[in-house]
Amino acid sequence: MISPPGQDPEASIQLASGSDVGQLRSANEDSCDSFTHEDGTRLLVLADGMGGARGGATASHTAIATIAEHFERDTSERPRATLETAIQAANARIFEIAQRDPELEGMGTTVVALLLDARLRATVAHVGDSRAYRYRRGFLEPITTDHSVVAEMQRRGLLSADEAAVHPRRNEILRAVGVLAEVEVEIADVDIAPGDRFVLCSDGLSGVVRDDEIAAVVRGASPQDAVTTLIQMANERGGPDNITVQILSIPAKVDADDPEDSAPVELSAIENERRNRRRAQRAAGILAVLAIGMGAYFLWHWLAHAADAGAPANREGRSAPPLLDDATPEARPAPTNDPSSLSRRDRFELKAEAPRRGIRREATRP
């Protein structure tokens, strides 16, 4: 156990984990575990398997075991490289097993992992829709983004959160460990402050229990009691999937009796600065696009007027008939749905609006 600088020497990091089959599944295809180096570096890892009862369980167990092997023999101080190498190794091993056994063909698993080094620097890696959250001073913030069809549609503004919760494709993910020979792993560094709590969970929890409800439980209970309560809540909502939860708690400051120290705040100063920087970058990008668009619009008008001024006259001295784009409605061609008749830009826009095809799980939640 490790105590951060400035903390009570008796205080230490707490960790609790739990997994339950749920109310509708016959087998638990989720897996989770935690591992610790002698220097105090910790790894939490959670996997939600898919591909049938046998395939899903095999994939998730293999992922946990392979990641653990790489973590235990890793001596580097590069957490990003550690997580990338471990998850890629798990992907290769699961894919190889599936190729050898026809009954396991197509099996795969989500993975979410949190690595906390001896200096209390955190790194999170994930593939799929198992999530990691950070609870800080009354607020629960997702620190991963689902690799799923409905999450992508939400990001593009095609669905609201309420619509995504009941969408028929909410059971499809866009990435999974072991389904293909290669996988893209998303990795990010995470800011840590005294009193933070981290929650890792499968969609058996996040799919039926709201984020604000998870926050209320995490805030008012010890890690072990919070894990037990959250699993119970998911089962009370029907338990449509396996439910797995891990909670890691960072000790609070010794002088935490200061009201300001425990009062809810929206974001830390570092996170607020990052968010403002991202907003400024987005605004600059939008302004650049608008400027280019306006320039193109005025250039097009200038060329159109120049062409009209130089158009040949007919026998009566009037200008030649307008081009097809300015013709009367009767002269325009009828609209068509044939993609081959569309311009390259129109075909690209149609393709961009079409939802990507996802990896479907064994069964869709009711």
Summary of the model, kept short:
It contains ten helices and twelve strands. The chain has 366 residues and is of the alpha+beta class. The protein starts with 13 loop residues before the first strand and ends in a 6-residue tail after the last strand.
Q: What are the salient characteristics of this protein?
A:
five-stranded antiparallel beta sheet, Phosphatase 2c, domain 1, globular, 366 residues, disordered N terminus, 19% strand, 12 strands, alpha+beta
Show the helix and strand layout.
Blueprint: E1 14-20, E2 30-36, E3 42-50, H1 52-73, H2 79-100, E4 108-116, E5 122-127, E6 131-136, E7 139-142, H3 149-155, H4 161-166, E8 172-173, E9 186-190, E10 197-201, H5 203-206, H6 211-220, H7 223-236, E11 243-249, H8 259-262, H9 269-309, H10 344-353, E12 359-360
Antiparallel strand pairs: 1-11, 2-3, 3-4, 4-5, 5-9, 6-7, 6-10, 8-12, 10-11
Helix pairs in contact: 1-2, 6-7
Question: Could you please describe the fold and organization of this structure?
Answer:
The protein is globular and about 75 Å long. The strands form three sheets. A five-stranded antiparallel sheet has the order 1-11-10-6-7. The protein has a five-stranded antiparallel sheet with strand order 2-3-4-5-9, covered by helices on one side. It has helices spanning 52-73, 79-100, 149-155, 161-166, 203-206, 211-220, 223-236, 259-262, 269-309, 344-353; strands spanning 14-20, 30-36, 42-50, 108-116, 122-127, 131-136, 139-142, 172-173, 186-190, 197-201, 243-249, 359-360. It contains ten helices and twelve strands. Helices cover 38% and strands 19% of the residues. The protein folds into two domains: 14-266, 4-Layer Sandwich (Phosphatase 2c, domain 1); 267-317. The protein is an alpha+beta fold and 366 residues long.
